[in-house]
Amino acid sequence: MSTQEVAESRTALDHRTGRPRVAVVTGGSRGIGREVVSRLAADGYAVVVGYAGNRDLAETAAKEVTATGGRALAVRADVADEQQVADLFATAESEFGAVDVVVHAAGRLYVAPVAELDLAELDAVHRTNIRGSFVVAQQAVRRIRAGGAIITFSTSVVGLAFPGYGAYSAGKGAVEALTPILARELRGRDVTVNSVAPGPTATDLFLEGKDEETVARLAAQAPLERLGTPADIAQVVAFLASPAGHWVNGQVVRANGGII
């Protein structure tokens, strides 16, 4: 089978129109976003890999998709900049014809007790995590076609209330508040809106600055007794993006191995 035939055989098609499906993934250069890119590409989506600063990693992610017969390209965009995000979506439409799935995985983490918060860091976190979510959602609503899915990212820390995560959790709480409202605003469009809230997940961002004892303690909290993996989270995203997950709408899915 030729490379073209392989690509055609794995292309995700809209179940009503037969058109190829296209996904935009912000934060797609590393971590969970990178795994989402790989999983959606494996499911046959054309993927636009959005990134802020990791150009080499983003282009590598796109090249890995095209090397196996898929369709992907990397596009730089600061998710809090409305013009750059508009250009990101315009590129998706011009290169692949439409937008069917939007996965907003880009985020910024800052950990400090409230009494010791660097307010400049607080502003930076909220610029990316709150403003960025609204900017991406705005473009998604304007451009996504019927049958599509918008998937944002929260965190299980919103419910777990770990000390030190006040700034991060507050920003992700805003994302959780936005999710059901946006789902209702899209009434009649046949578009779902959900948020995925991972628990402790073995990414570079999560592991940075943590000693082995801390990592082991966090891993033991889940009844499954391990950290999540980016692949665990990407599978949840893939389900919500697929026709099989289309009846799930306006929800926050806590993908954390059972931590309560």
List keywords for this structure.
260 residues; seven-stranded parallel beta sheet; alpha/beta
What is the fold's blueprint, element by element?
Blueprint: H1 3-10, E1 22-26, H2 31-42, E2 46-51, H3 55-67, E3 72-76, H4 82-96, E4 101-104, H5 119-143, E5 149-153, H6 157-160, H7 166-185, E6 192-198, H8 204-207, H9 212-221, H10 230-241, E7 252-255
Parallel strand pairs: 1-2, 1-4, 2-3, 4-5, 5-6, 6-7
Mean pLDDT: 92
**In the CATH scheme, what's the topology name?**
Rossmann fold
What coarse outline follows from CA principal-axis ratios?
Answer: globular
Number of helices: 10
CATH superfamily grouping: NAD(P)-binding Rossmann-like Domain
Secondary structural class: alpha/beta
Taken together, the total number of domains comes to 1
Give the N-terminus to C-terminus distance in angstroms: 48 Å
Q: What amount of the residues lies in strands? A: 5-15%
Main pleated-sheet profile: 7 strands, parallel
Structure description:
The protein has 260 residues and is α/β, with parallel strands linked by helices. It has one domain (3-201, 230-254): 3-Layer(aba) Sandwich (Rossmann fold), CATH 3.40.50. It has helices at 3-10, 31-42, 55-67, 82-96, 119-143, 157-160, 166-185, 204-207, 212-221, 230-241; strands spanning 22-26, 46-51, 72-76, 101-104, 149-153, 192-198, 252-255. A seven-stranded parallel beta sheet has the order 3-2-1-4-5-6-7, with helices on both faces. The mean pLDDT is 92.
